[in-house]
Design brief:
This protein folds into two domains: about 260 residues, TIM Barrel (Alpha-Beta Barrel), CATH 3.20.20.70; about 70 residues, Ribonuclease E, catalytic domain (Hypothetical Protein Ychn, Chain: A). The chain is about 40% helix and about 20% strand. It has twelve helices and twelve strands. Helix 4 links the parallel strand 3 and strand 4. Helix 7 packs parallel to helix 9 and helix 9 packs across helix 10. The longest helix is centred in the first third of the chain and has 17 residues. The chain binds iron/sulfur cluster. The site of iron/sulfur cluster has 9 residues, from loops.
């Protein structure tokens, strides 16, 4: 059967008056960069996206991102949600997802979202460790994330829990524990954002004073590797890895330091495949080999900038990667090819 193609039409909801001051976020800059889209611009963008989708077997969602959706005035929330209703009725759009803060969830909010047929609610959890939340000035506790998650699940929504790594007071162990909690709370999806130092934030000040040190790119990749494997094992869809929630709205001059890389996920996948290939380096030195890998994983197996292939080529005389559709997950097959006469 033909695979269903998933699309999300993004709508960036302006965060004009966020009352919080998370240590990693420069919300003034964010607000300054934002244009408030008109209703016509929003529905025009729905139509343009829908016209551009080629696959007929598709599942289309509208995603309201960029802010604390349930923190904006109720009338505005309803205005946004109302725009999607004719598309849901027509069956051209199939669901609505939105992101918000855990402390902006209550039963009244959830019943309105249900009424407007919202399907997925993503919470910016960032961490499920109270020390990390406190040190990052998040303004909510881990317990609040747990309570909001339970309410969202009980009300029948799909739950997304976003996490950040490398915030003040964070450790690899705490990040792993956060991921474990995210799984236990029944999230169906997550996003992993390495914390970055953005200009004019509390973390920027601490960075200048030597009180905060962001993860290096290598560390962020190293931390993310087991997180991704944990989520995959628990069938939690990792929608995105890398890029700070605010960073997508800022230009690069606002990025002061931190493990930013445009292909962050690829770097993590490269390391996962590298671990799988290391046992191959124990035998068959100097041989010509063919490695069959799942077609969907070909680039990751070869590695970012061919990193894995280069490592293998230090051991084998020749390495040929072959994509195979029917190989799944990270299964692969190594064949020793005959030496040429
Ligand atoms: S991350 Fe979100 S909640 Fe925190 S200060 Fe920025 S906009 Fe406000």
């Amino acid at each position: 059967m033909e695979k269903i193609k998933h699309y999300t039409i993004p709508v960036f909801v302006p965060e004009l008056a966020c009352p919080f001051q998370c240590a990693f976020c420069n919300q003034e800059k964010i607000s300054g960069h934002q244009n408030i889209p008109t209703e016509k611009e929003i529905t025009d963008s729905f139509d343009a996206y829908l016209r551009s989708f080629r696959e007929t077997n598709r599942h289309v969602e509208v995603g309201f991102f960029g802010g604390t959706f349930t923190g904006i005035p109720l009338a505005e929330q309803e205005n946004y949600l109302r725009l999607v209703q004719p598309y849901l009725d027509a069956g051209t759009i199939h669901g609505i997802r939105l992101s918000t803060r855990p402390d902006y969830i209550n039963s009244a909010v959830l019943s309105i979202l249900k009424q407007y047929r919202v399907t997925t609610i993503e919470l910016g959890a960032q961490s499920l460790d109270d020390e990390v939340l406190k040190a990052s000035y998040r303004g909510h506790t881990a317990r609040q994330v747990e309570q909001a998650s339970e309410m969202i699940r009980d009300a029948g929504f799909d739950l997304g829990l976003q996490m950040m790594i490398g915030l003040p007071e964070d450790t690899l162990e705490k990040s792993l524990a956060t991921a474990q909690k995210i799984i236990e709370l029944g999230a169906s999806n997550t996003r992993i954002y390495p914390a970055l130092v953005i200009r004019d934030t509390a973390m920027h000040q601490w960075f200048r004073q030597g009180k905060y040190k962001p993860l290096s790119l290598e560390e962020a990749v190293e931390w993310s590797r087991p997180l991704l494997l944990m989520f995959e094992k628990a069938r939690v869809n990792v929608i995105r890895m890398g890029l700070h929630p605010s960073e997508s709205l800022l230009d690069h001059t606002d990025l002061v330091a931190g493990p930013f890389h445009p292909s962050f996920r690829e770097l993590v996948l490269t390391q996962i495949w590298k671990e799988l290939f290391i046992p191959l380096l124990r035998e068959n030195k100097g041989k010509k080999v063919e490695i069959q890998v799942p077609a969907a994983e070909l680039n990751a197996a070869i590695g970012h900038h061919s990193e894995n292939k280069k490592i293998l080529l230090r051991h084998f005389h020749e390495v040929k990667f072959v994509p195979v559709e029917k190989l799944k997950n990270r299964n692969f097959r190594l064949t020793i090819l005959p030496d040429q006469e």
